[in-house]
Amino acid sequence: MPSPLHVLQADITTLKVDAIVNAANSSLLGGGGVDGAIHRAAGPELLQECRLLNGCKVGEAKLTKGYRLPAKFIIHTVGPVWHGGKRNEADLLASCYRNSLQIAASHGAHSIAFPCISTGVYGYPVELAAQIAVTTVNSTLPQLDSIREVIFCCFSASDFAVYQKLVDAAAE
Ligand code: ADP
Questions:
Q1: Of all atoms in ligand 1, which is nearest to the CA of residue 126?
Q2: Does 11 contact ligand 1 (Cβ within 6 A)?
Q3: Number of domains present in the structure of the chain
Q4: Is the Cβ atom of 120 under 6 angstroms away from ligand 1?
Q5: Which residue, of 44, 48, 150, 156, is most buried by count of CB atoms within 10 Å of its CB?
Q6: pLDDT, position 1
Q7: Measured between alpha carbons, how far is 64 from 66 in angstroms, rounded to an integer?
Q8: Cα(first)–Cα(last) distance of the chain, in Å?
């Protein structure tokens, strides 16, 4: 069977998938980085829906429509801020991936794209974050029949290389 995991170097707002994941902050009211790009591309209706959600805790995920994006849904998850690794960052980051996949599956999504959650302003080291991303997706997917494609959408060439290596190794 072909692997459901794919790595792309792209702007996540351009992807034609059922759901894209947003690395949001806990207010869900927009921010910089990928969050800002998603709000700009989806349009102002996204912020209106986000205002009704009462924020989101670290490690949890909430779903909105995709509005002007090619993606049908946006799953907003809040990654942990990196404090050196002793404040439960790894478990919280794994929860982001698990909860995002579960909410996507509960809305019947077949394809989902993740950015490199927490590795921008939140400072999580990319290699460590990518390991958690790939391991958690691999261990969660067998419980979720509907999801057939998971894309790790990297913005930089160096992130792409890190993910590609891990996904190739996981497929062997
Ligand atoms: P966090 O606050 O969770 O660290 P950031 O948005 O600062 O979130 O960064 C998360 C990742 O998203 C980084 O790897 C950053 O390069 C990437 N990123 C920024 N803009 C986009 C985009 N348009 N598409 C995909 N990834 C993006």
A1: 14
A2: yes
A3: 1
A4: yes
A5: 150
A6: 64
A7: 6
A8: 13
Helix (H) or strand (E) holding 1: none
To 5 degrees, how large is the angle CA 52–CA 22–CA 119? 135
For residue 79 and ligand 1, the question of a CB distance below 6 A is answered with yes
Owning domain of residue 142: 5-171
Residues in the chain: 172
Residue whose CA is at the smallest distance from ligand 1 atom 1:
118
pTM: 0.98
Mean pLDDT of 88-115: 98
Catalytic residue set: 35
CATH label of the domain that carries residue 9: 3.40.220.10
The conformational region for residue 108 under phi > 0 = left, psi -120 to 50 = alpha, else beta, is left
Q: Cα 27 vs. chain centroid, distance in angstroms?
A: 17
Distance CA 5, CA 54 (A): 32
Best residue for ligand 1 mutational test, from 8, 82, 83, 116 (most atoms within 8 Å of Cβ): 116
Per-residue pLDDT tens over the stretch 33-87:
999 999 999 999 999 999 999 999 999 999 999 999 999 999 999 999 999 999 9
